[in-house]
Structure prediction request, 258 residues.
Amino acid sequence: MGKIIMIGAMKGGVGKSVTAFNLAYTLQKRGKKVLAVDFDPQSNLTTCFGAEDVDVAIGDLMMNVIEDEDLPERKEYIWERNGVDFIPSSIGLSAVEAKLRLEMGTEKMLSAVLKPLRDEYDVILIDTSPSLGALNINAMAAADEVIVTVNPQLLAMMGLQDFLKTVKKIKTRINEKLDVAGILLTMCDARTILCKTITEQVTETFNGQIRIFKSKIPSTVKVGESIYYSEPLIEYAPGCNACKAYERLAGEVIADEG
Prediction:
C-alpha cells in the first residue's frame, strides 16, 4: 500500500507546488511509482505539469463522492508525464470547498477518491492550498504524513505553529496515523543574515520535537525557468543546486520507509 504525503504550508509563495512537482520526479528516479494530486483551486501543480484543457479534475471526483456517484474511468482523470502520474485541479475545486463546509461528515471525501489508488503507487503526493480550510482538513484526513514547506522569511514563519497545531488536532480527532514527516526549508539564500537567523530559530524551536529535513532548497533562477517550460529540475537543470537538494530530499523521504 502506497504512502500518502501531503505537502502543506500556511502561506503561499513558499515553494510548495514546486516541491511537490520536483519531489515526484526525484522519487520516480529512485524507482518509485508516483501519483501527484493537485488539491489546490489555484492549480499551480497542474500548471507545473503543463496540463491544459482539463475535462475531469480533482474537484469533479470530489463531487462524485459527495453525491454518492461512481467515479469515472481512471484514464479520464489520471494524466501521465514522463513516468509520473498526476490528477489535475481547476478553479471548480473552490465550489467543492464551499459545499464541504455546508455538509456534515465530509472530512474523508478525498480519502474515498484515493483509497482505490493506494495499491497502485508507492507514493501519492498531495499539493494543497495555503490555508486551514475544509480542503486541507480533507488532505490531512487522507495523508499518512505531512511535509511542511517554510520559506525562511518572517511572514512565512508566522503561521507555522498554527499549522502544526491543526495537524495535531486532525491526528487526535480524525486520522490517528497522521504524522509530520518534517519541516522543509525552501527558497533559502544562505548568504543573507535573515535566512541564517530564521533557520537557526526553526532549528532551536523544533529540534528534538519535529524533524527538520537536512535538505534545504536554495533559491535559484533555474526553478522559475523550469516551471515556465513545464519541466522538473531533474530534466531541465539536473546539475543545479536546487535539483541536487530535491534529490537529497527524496533520499530522506525514502529512508523513512526503513
Notes: Residues 241-255 form the longest helix (15 residues). The beta strands are 3-8, 34-39, 79-81, 84-87, 123-128, 145-150, 179-185. Residues 172 and 178 are 9 Å apart (CA to CA).
